[in-house]
Amino acid sequence: MPWTAALSALAASNSAACPGPEQGFVRLASAEAEIAYRWTPDELKIGQFFGVEMVACRLPGGEAVDTIVVDAQMPAHGHGMNYRPRSTRLAPDRYLVSGLMLHMAGHWRVTFDLFQGTKRTRLTHDVTLKP
Amino acid sequence: MKRLTAIAACLAVAGAAVAIAGSQGRNAVEPAAFSADEREAILSHGPWPPPMPPDPSNRVSGNSDAIALGRWLFSDKRLSADGARSCATCHDPAKAFTDGRDRSIGLVRVDRNAIALANLRLNRWYGWAGAADSLWAQSIRPILDPKEFAATPELVRARLAADAAIRAAYARVFAAEMSRDPPERVLVNLAKALAAYQETIVTARTPFDDFRDALARGDTATLAHYPLAAQKGLKIFVGKGRCTACHLGPNFTSGEFEDVGVPYFVEAHRVDAGRFAGIAELRRSSFSLAGPHNDDAVRADAAPTRHVEQLHRNWGEFRVPSLRNVAATAPYMHNGSLATLEDVVRHYSQVDEERLHGTEGQRLLRPLHLTREEASDLVAFLKTLSSAVVSQR
Amino acid sequence: MHVTVPIAYHARHRPQPGVNAMRRVILAVLIATLSAGFAVADTSRPIIDVHIHYSHDAWSMLPPPEAVKVLRQAGLKKAFVSSSSDDGTQMLYRAAPDLIVPVLRPYRRRGETGTWVKDPTVIQHVEGRLKANTYAGIGEFHVFGADADLPVMRRMVELARERKIFLHAHSDADAVARIFVQDPDALVLWAHSGFDQADKVRAMLAKHKTLWADLAFRSDHAPSGKLRPEWRQLFLDYPDRFMVGTDTFTPERWHYVVEHASYSRQWLADLPTDVADKIAFGNAERLAAAVLGK
Ligand SMILES: [Cu+2]
Ligand SMILES: [Zn+2]
Questions:
Q1: C234, A118: Cβ pair inside 8 Å?
Q2: Do B179 and B73 share a structural domain?
Q3: What pTM value is reported for the model?
Q4: CA B315–ligand 1 middle distance (angstroms)
């Protein structure tokens, strides 16, 4: 029954339905929070612009997210991206971020900063790009 | 067009075979001498040529009438206010579409080295500072630049509309009457024809490309044709030299901007601000892909323009140049300050770390302290990236 | 077009009367348009730049009188200068004592960034200089993590305490915390605010009452000249603790001082005037006056 599935997904999170691998989403969780995200297009390549759709599934406290900032750094090289992503809110706790571009091969740390007022919760995901 | 490329490729291969006939043989490195990571990095520099589809922002990209008009305009001195120079003055087809000078000379000496024109469809940004986001927008810059052609849209239209042949070509390509189009539209259209022509300038396959493809195929017989010194230089390039970090992919560039510690004073009290100034110019320009002259209704290629962010580190950053055909495009760097490839390799070997703000900036570049032999191997490798420049039509 | 999108977005989300918001949008767009151009030096708001280096390779390209001219052209009220070697700072100070606030960099030449803290001869050098000249602080030096507890660094903290001057530390939060363990009353100017996020900087400022933070070489607090909301709130909550600076780590970067001052004025304009003035020059002026005993 699709509606029961939807219902249990809703119950599992306090703020939004948390999509899973069926819809191409990856879950990312810390002690404080959990998000689901998917890249668009789904394969990351050097020098190619991409976006990310992100759903905030579990957050500290009750409030919704008011902004998210997605960024990426190369820790070993000491630099970030040359472009600034912009986020659009698709629904409460659901965002589409566009304008990311990773310009070198190697290890990138993608950060998702979720703001509830000035409270920031960070989730990070490491990506290694092939040359 | 396909046939021409093929002929050029054959010529390049033949030339390479002759060039290395004396140096190859028993001492050639077997492919096994490259680690899996090195192999992967080497393969990432090909295959060549990559696809170069038409430019969606330019409705006459790939149009043969536009290419013919553009080729004509490229050496037409009427585009310059004093009628003394054309594009070909600084981008001479006989000199790999550059001028061989350190800094070019227009009405006065300009601040930068003329970039060799080739494989331009692969660029994300144009010019050393990326002040233009399309080939046609870049082609407008020298026309209006007071130091180069010092022309105006009105002057260009008046001069060229007086020529019946150009008027006819314009009508054929743009389905419009040149003298009735507003001057700015005429300028943009002519720049789009210039772009259509310049897109056809591509570099042929090189000895490196044959080596790379042979490595992909596991064709050891062909691999052995690639000189040992070049193989050792390649190992440095993808390995401890970390050159591939910036000079990446089939065109040997990330297409982005970096500071590799080249001083950027133009004269005592003036610096070339590089990428910082490039972004400022891009934002001021009415010819950017975000503006009204982009022919692509969905502006698919405008993402870099929309998202580019001006950062403190952009001050003194320059575009990572392609290394295809690099042996033919001396002198080097944005200001032509290094005369030879040996000088460039020495620069990387002794790079001044303090200039690079190591703690919060560039951590990629460290003085490599190459031995004399390593340096000459690296140069030998760079020289295998050359071939005849071919205009495909 | 590039700048209007985020500005309009922010305006919509700020709880303000519509007209006021609109006026802000227009003003912001105007400022953005102006400063996107080159060196449109709107010098209306004075600035004290607390992160200037005048190192040896700058001396020939930009002799002291020229260097002073650059700083004045940028509309600087004062500049905190530290150099490798300190001779650069002294030359500049002699050329314009009203403008230059001398800070003693422990490096005798460039290239000591990573080694100085393990080199005991640095102590003698610093002590000698402190006796010979007047300084507002010791720095900018680089020290991270547990290295802040090494003898050379401990001596720097003692010397700063003896002379009641500040330490300009390019450090992570850990090293700054260790300095405060050594001297809970140390005066610390935290270079680049440690390149930390707003909430981390907030926690440090809350914990250490004599910590100031400079914003040199960062623009993440105000991308495209527009303040991020969490930084705006931080500046409002700690208006007395921030300063601005360029970081002239190559001679060419001296020509960026003007541009950097315009950038600072641009985002400062998004703060209430009194807060903006404090960050632009007030905080630096008070710190300099306090340590130099004026
Ligand atoms: Cu990198
Ligand atoms: Zn610093």
A1: yes
A2: yes
A3: 0.90
A4: 18
B-chain residue closest to C218, CA distance: B312
CB proximity A45 to C under 8 Å? no
Last-in-domain residue among B193, B226, B259: B226
Contact A104 B255 (CB under 8 A): no
Residues B60, B14 within the same domain: no
Please give the Cα distance from C252 to C259 (Å, whole number): 13
Task: Answer whether A101 sits within 8 Å of B307, measured CB to CB.
Answer: yes
Taking the C-alpha atoms of residue A85 and residue A68, their distance in angstroms, rounded to an integer, is 10
Q: Which chains touch C (3 or more CB pairs under 8 A)?
A: A, B
CA distance B138 to B259: 22
The size of chain C, in residues, is: 294
Put simply, whether A115 touches C (Cβ < 8 Å) is yes
pLDDT (tens digit per residue) in B356-371? 765 555 578 889 999 9
> Are A131 and B40 inside 8 Å of each other by CB?
yes
C-alpha to C-alpha distance for B49 and B128, rounded to whole angstroms: 23
Q: Is B180's Cβ below 8 Å from some Cβ in C?
A: no
- Comparing B359 with C157, which gets the higher pLDDT? C157
Chain A contacts of B255, Cβ < 8 Å? 47, 103
Residues from chain A that touch C234, judged by Cβ atoms under 8 A, are: 118
Nearest Cα neighbor of B204 from B18, B389, B14 is: B389
Tokens encoding C227: 């303040």
- How many domains does chain B divide into? 2
Query: Any idea which residue has 């507890």 for tokens?
Result: C149
Tokens of B221: 């017989």
Residues spanned by the domain of B6? 2-49+205-226
Please indicate if any CB of chain A lies within 8 Å of the CB of B306.
Answer: yes
C90: containing domain: 41-292
Could you report the per-residue pLDDT of B291-327, keeping only the tens digit for each? 999 999 999 899 999 999 999 999 999 999 999 999 9
Domains of chain A, CATH where assigned: 2-129 (2.60.40.1930)
Kindly state the tokens that stand for B271: 């610096």
